[in-house]
Amino acid sequence: MNYPLFWAILGAVFCFMELFLPTGFVESTLGLSAFVVAIVALVVPSFNFQIVVWVALSLVFIFLLRRFVPKRTPYSLQEATEARTITAIPPGQMGRVIYEGNSWQARCEDEAITVAADQPVVVVRRKGTTLYVMPESALSA
């Protein structure tokens, strides 16, 4: 078997897969490792040795890559962000608000308060896809 050709094709397949299945460059590092092993295979014919080199290089490249890929930060709401009600929010029930140009499910933080439609509200917190709001009039009083 032509091992250098095998590793070169494997490297190309991994790099090509990264285009369609983005994995944070993990597949690209596997492909890059395979290209390096294709060069090593020209000198060292042992397939078992080539596999060990490929696994080791892949782990090293993935470890080094993690330093350059930015970490994801969880989405958080800004403090006291304004929104506007689309529908009324009855006490203890759901309504809808416009927040940052999108319609969100919303509840009033104080379950004893009714919030009328088309009223400015302040987003207090978020739980899943539901925003918890308070009317501006209740906060300014």
Structure summary:
The protein has 141 residues and is of the alpha+beta class. The chain is built from 4 helices and 5 strands, in the order H-H-H-E-E-E-E-E-H.
Structural write-up:
- The chain is α+β, with helices and mostly antiparallel strands.
- It folds into two domains: 3-66, no CATH class; 81-140, Nucleic acid-binding proteins (OB fold (Dihydrolipoamide Acetyltransferase, E2P)), CATH 2.40.50.
- 43% of the residues lie in helices and 23% in strands.
- It is built from four helices and five strands, in the order αααβββββα.
- The chain has helices spanning 3-20, 26-43, 47-66, 136-140, and strands at 81-85, 94-99, 102-108, 120-127, 130-135.
- Strands 1-2-3-5-4 form a five-stranded mixed beta barrel.
- It is rod-shaped and about 75 Å long.
- The N and C termini lie far apart (81 Å).
- The relative contact order is 0.11.
- The model has no long low-confidence stretch (mean pLDDT 89).
- The chain crosses the membrane at residues 5-26, 32-65.
- InterPro entries: Membrane_assoc_protease (IPR052165), NA-bd_OB-fold (IPR012340), NfeD-like_C (IPR002810).
- It is found in: Membrane.
